Amino acid sequence: MPAERLKMRRVREILRYRFEEGLGHKSIAVRVGAAPSTVRETLRRLERAGFSWPLGDDVSDAVLEAALYKAAGTKTGHRRSAEPDWAHVHRELKRKHVTLQILWDEYIGLHPEGYRYSRWCDLYRGWALKLPVTMR
Question: In this structure, are residues 3 and 11 in contact, taking their beta carbons and an 8 Å threshold?
Fold first, then answer.
């Protein structure tokens, strides 16, 4: 589960504790109420953003947040290949003589760098497990 984004007030506290008081990650984490890894990551983000302490008067909370979290939401995760339309795959499987192998062959024809067969089947089965079960 991803961690919750820190409020800018807490980010400023982390920076003040680190650069004015010279505290370590664990001490800062206890005082701010965050994990030491969060403190480390916040300081790493600050370094990558090119800010230095003390922050200038022109650095508002909105500017600081935009600079620290500009890459948020851009990570693609473990699914880096083209996703098939699982609903279409599910409908096609209901047809006579249609198998996952046949549908995967069509998928890999369209997306040669796509998922290999076993991963493709795992993803489909994971998707299918989320379908609601209904009685007719």
Answer: no
Its pTM surpasses 0.70: no
Q: How far is CA 81 from the centre of its chain?
A: 16
Q: Distance between CA 70 and CA 63 in Å, rounded?
A: 10
Give the DSSP H/E element, type plus range, for residue 46. Answer: helix 36-49
* Tens digits of residue pLDDT in 72-87: 555 555 566 778 889 8
Cis amide leading into 54 (omega within 30): yes
Is the distance from CB of 29 to CB of 60 less than 8 angstroms? no
Residue-wise pLDDT for 121-135, tens only, equals 999 999 999 888 877
Segment 39-55 shows an average pLDDT of 84
User: CA geometry: angle at 88 spanning 82 and 93, to 5°?
Assistant: 115
- Domains in the chain: boundaries: 8-68, 86-129
Instruction: Name the percent of the chain lying above pLDDT 70.
Output: 88
Q: How many degrees, rounded to 5, is the angle at CA 22 between CA 20 and CA 12? A: 50
Whole-angstrom distance, CA of residue 95 vs CA of residue 100: 11
Dist CA 66 CA 125 (whole Å): 38
